[in-house]
Amino acid sequence: MMQRILASTTALALALSLAACDDPGAQGATRAEQEAAVELSEFPERPYWGDTHLHTDNSVDAFGFGNRLGPEAALQFARGDEVESTTGVKAKLARPLDFLVIADHSDGLGATRRLYDAPRIGVVAMGDDTLLRWYDMMHESPEQSQRAIGEMITAAANDNLPPAMTNAEDNEENTREIWAAHLATLDKYYEPGVFTAFAGFEYTLMPDGNNLHRVVMFRDGYERTSTVLPYPGLSTEVTGLWDYMDNYERATGGKVLAIPHNSNLSNGLMFELTGPNGGPMSADYARRRAEREPVVEATQIKGDSESHPFLSPNDEFASFGDLGWDLGNLPLTARKDESMFAGEYLREALKNGLSIEQRTGANPYAFGMIGSTDSHTTLATGDEDNFFGKHTGNEPMEGRALQSQNLGTREGRFGWHYLAGGYAAVWARANTRAEIFDAMLRREVYATTGPRMVVRLFGGFGFTEEDWDGDWVRKGYSEGVPMGGNLADEGEAPVFMISALKDPDGANLDRVQIVKGWTNEDGTTGEKVYDVVWSDMDERARVGGKVPAVGDTVNRDDATYTNTIGAAELRSVWTDPDYREGQRAFYYVRVLEIPTPRWTLFDAVLYGLELPEDAMADAVAQERAYSSPIWLNPAAEPAQTVRRNMRNRPGRG
Amino acid sequence: MTLPGWTREPLVHFLAAGAAIVLLLAWQGEEVDPASRSITVTQEDRARLALQWERTMSRPPTDAELDALTERFIREEVLYREALRLGLDRDDAVLRKRLANKMDYLAGSMAETAAVSDATLQQWLDNHPERFAEDTRYSFDQRYFAGREDAESALASGDREGEAISLPAAVENERRKQVEDRFGIAFRRGLDGLEPGSDWQGPVASGFGWHLVRVRARAPGTVPPLGDIRDRVETDWRAATKDRREDEAYRVLRDAYEVTVER
After folding, report:
1. What does the pLDDT average to over B85-101?
2. Which of B13, B22, B73 should be substituted to probe chain A, the one whose Cβ sees the most A Cβ atoms within 10 Å?
3. Is A390:A375 a contact under the CB 8 Å cutoff?
4. Which of A355, A433, A554, B188 is deepest in the core (most CB within 10 A)?
């Protein structure tokens, strides 16, 4: 039979290619030596930039959307090499990344690719009409392939994928092969001190299409990670994932964390007030969640989850990246009502976390914030002027901004609702797996919507404006805590040292704000956004309590802007004017850039498109950064997270 | 014509022969003449169908299920032969493309399997030093000014206080990427235009404003010896070789064809 010969010939070639691979164990030992030789600074001196959420052609949907670039290309691109995208466009990052987490979907890892590569008769023999139809659609044309994958996502959301795709035991052998080869590749590209490649996967939990996805990220190399397989999201519960993580750490001595994302598509489920099965949340559950999920992805291509105008009506900057995404769940099979927003946006979750802590003694939502891409093109592009699309079906091409999407095609979500994606900034002492991972554990990280502004935040009780004249970073670390840390209430108002430096190759800064959230004695919560420092403060005096808008230099005809407004750096020492003793609170920084063109405006100019009015109104935006919060806790309460933070604090041996 | 080394490897001959058979069968319709109207489903075929089912469903098929699979198999075979009889394979773009891809894959996988000598990698390293050279490293002092005039008059007057900004006043032996991350690409380019020495120079423009700069050292990146970066060189060589081998394999085949394009 033709197929049999073909299969055995390719199998032979594959077996030989695997045999030629380096011994992953020896490679791991070399990497460990190199990692140990990397010099650590006394305290974090610079943020490291990365993407914790990148898909390659090993992801079922990415492959189905037409992506034919694998993890190796992803690593090459992220570290600064030129690669050719699936659609044949040469691509190279002007500013390479420092680290990358490849997070392909654990469900059906490599399955679409296997389905696609299978001889048709083999698919026929499986006797599943749906599978066969998808197979044929995938081979017919890129458009049909994208439709097939749209159907797959819907089927996954409704939990009725063909059994052949979900049967973990059947797929195990294949998955193990792909996973092991992938882990060896990561070790190969890991250059301690220069470029860090992390193992990870996406846990795609999605009951009824409500997005409860997590990126799972490992601290370790092949030797440890190859002892497990990526944990499936379909037909499991998140506590099962946490068990899996516990078991991994116990069995290997390694470390692993989970990063929830797209809470904005969870229809209220991501940050529930209740426990997993509807009852009140227990302290154990809350503690476990905080321990396992120290960081949340606040912003990415599928929208921004920091805040929503419904929850924060007094915050005129709350709506960034909400449009379209706030209509419903991920595939838009269920619409959203307003009562769901509270379980979706990070600021509200941080507030509710305080309230739960007040009741139970543990805060489930004491998380830091990062941004990432969730790109499915194998290319980690987070900037407005290099947006390579959510997936291969919308890589740069005419009209992509106006296309309807697979995620809610007839329901009002369009290409222009996509953001260009964000990045994770990590304050670490060196560019190694251990240092970056540990910084994420202690939440010394922040999110940006793409620009690489440098944001410092220290909380304490004795900072003054004079500190800027000396070594203020050292003082920040020695007399206070950095972002992600905890302060114990000492009966006086906390003081924050905040510095925001613009992206050296980007736009000036409009303003720096502190977002404060707190809980009242009765368990209700409150929030306030303070304008702390802004550009041209003399000319821009507050009007009715509000700082006037910075202005807008964007030329809509050629997608340019000028740095004639805004500031290169904004910094301030800020004391909470509304401090109340004994009140639980958090403080995080939001930095706003001056208005700049979004990718949609670049597209409109490049392709000579006329955007519809609503898309045009959204084609210019103020990009931003969100720091992780600093928490203020009642004095006599050394929470578990506090202890961990102290232990891991850099510069203290 | 001189054939590249890989074409002389027995393995290549084997794989090429395998691929040729595959192609041949694909076009000729297996062991049977497409015109033949006799189909025999052997015990082996049935066993294979049963095994495929079992792998998917984790249990053997019942007799009825196996019969259904067999019927489906026969149906496929009948339609397949009829399709070949009608010559549908000849203008099926999908089939054509898939088989062509498989050929590329076979050729490309040679690069994966070949063990590579140090001499080959050394040659590769020598031919592409720019891919493996370390970044240029910079050591410099800088003073920041928001306005160009202020920077220029400070340079003239010798007053080198500068204005406050959260950038390091002294940079020691940092890689180009680190300098670009902190100061931006424009500044790094400006830096490259200055001669190292003990004088203050500038102002150099950056995204922040203007900088007086004293470049203490600029060390061009050296190419590490092969022993230190063998992994990287091998990875790069394999990636590049895969593409080249696909091309070469194609050219060998292509040369055997006489192609006329009518215009």
Report:
1. 73
2. B22
3. yes
4. A433
Nearest-CB residue to A127 (from B30, B69, B184):
B69
Tell me which residue of A566, A552, A556, A453 sits closest to A506, measured CA to CA. Answer: A453
What is the rounded (10 degree) CA torsion for B113, B117, B120, B122?
A: 130
How many degrees, rounded to 5, is the angle at CA A192 between CA A191 and CA A194? 70
Tell me the two tokens of residue A416: 């222009």
Q: Is B62 on the interface with A (CB under 8 A)?
A: no
| The three-state (H, E, C) secondary structure of A353-421, written as one string | HHHHHHHHCCCCCCCEEEECCCECCCCCCCCHHHCCCCCHHHCCCCCHHHCECCCCCCCCCEHHHCCCC
Query: Is the Cβ of A635 closer than 8 Å to some Cβ of chain B?
Result: no
Retrieve residue A460's tokens.
Answer: 């304490």
List, as ranges, residues 24-53 from B with C-beta within 8 Å of A: 25-26, 30, 49, 52-53
Give the pair of three-digit tokens for residue A652.
């203290």
> What number of other Cβ atoms are within 10 A of residue A606's Cβ?
12
**What does the domain layout of chain A look like in residue ranges?**
36-441, 453-648
- Which among A2, A13, A140 has the least Cβ separation from residue B94? A140
Q: How confident is the model over B180-191, as a mean pLDDT?
A: 95
Other C-beta atoms lying within 10 Å of the C-beta of residue B1: 5
Residue ranges of domains in chain B, CATH in brackets: 5-115+241-255 (no CATH), 134-219 (3.10.50.40)
- Closest partner residue to B30 (CB to CB) among A1, A468, A571 is A1
Distance CA A563, CA A595 (A): 10
Q: What is the dihedral of CA A205, A209, A212, A215, to 10 degrees?
A: 60
Query: Does a cis peptide bond (omega within 30 degrees of 0) precede residue A294?
Result: no
**Across A176-197, average pLDDT:** 92
pLDDT, mean of residues A435-439: 98
Angle at alpha carbon of residue B58, lines to B53 and B60, rounded to 5° = 55
Q: Does A644 touch chain B (CB under 8 A)?
A: no
Which residue type is seen at A115?
L
DSSP A279: S
**φ, ψ of residue A280 in degrees (nearest 5):** -65, 150
Contact B58 A46 (CB under 8 A): no
- What the block records as the tokens of A202 is 């996406």
Over residues A397-403, mean pLDDT = 78
Helix (H, G, I), strand (E, B) or coil at A250: helix
A-proximal residues of B, 113-172, CB under 8 Å: 113-115, 146, 164-167
Q: Which of A134-148, A205-219, A356-370 has the lowest mean pLDDT?
A: A134-148
Structure tokens at A166: 């979900």
* A49 in B contact zone (CB under 8 Å): yes
Nearest one of A287, A133, A274, A265 to A205, comparing CA atoms: A265
Is B18 in CB contact (< 8 Å) with chain A? yes
Q: How many CB pairs (< 8 A) connect A and B?
A: 125
CA distances from A296 to A173, A259, A353, A580, B199 (A): 32, 5, 14, 28, 48
Are the beta carbons of B166 and A9 separated by less than 8 Å? no
Q: How far is CA A275 from CA A86, A93, A216, A238, A397, in A?
A: 43, 43, 22, 12, 45
Statement: the pTM of the whole predicted model exceeds 0.90: no
Both tokens of A344, joined, read: 């979706």
Q: Which two tokens stand for residue A133?
A: 């139809």
CB-nearest to A505 from B98, B109, B185 is B185
Task: Supply A371's token pair.
Answer: 């941004």
Nearest-CA distance B107 → chain A (Å): 10
Residue A101: φ, ψ to 5°: -110, 115
Question: Which residues, listed in sequence order, are joined to residue A149 by a DSSP beta bridge?
Answer: none
Q: Which residues of B touch A46 (CB under 8 A)?
A: 178, 181-182
> Which residue out of A5, A34, A474 would a mutagenesis test of the B interface target, given it has the greatest number of B Cβ atoms within 10 Å?
A5
User: Measured over all CA atoms, what is the biggest interatomic distance in chain A, rounded to whole angstroms?
Assistant: 82
Task: For residue A240, give both structure tokens.
Answer: 């099962």
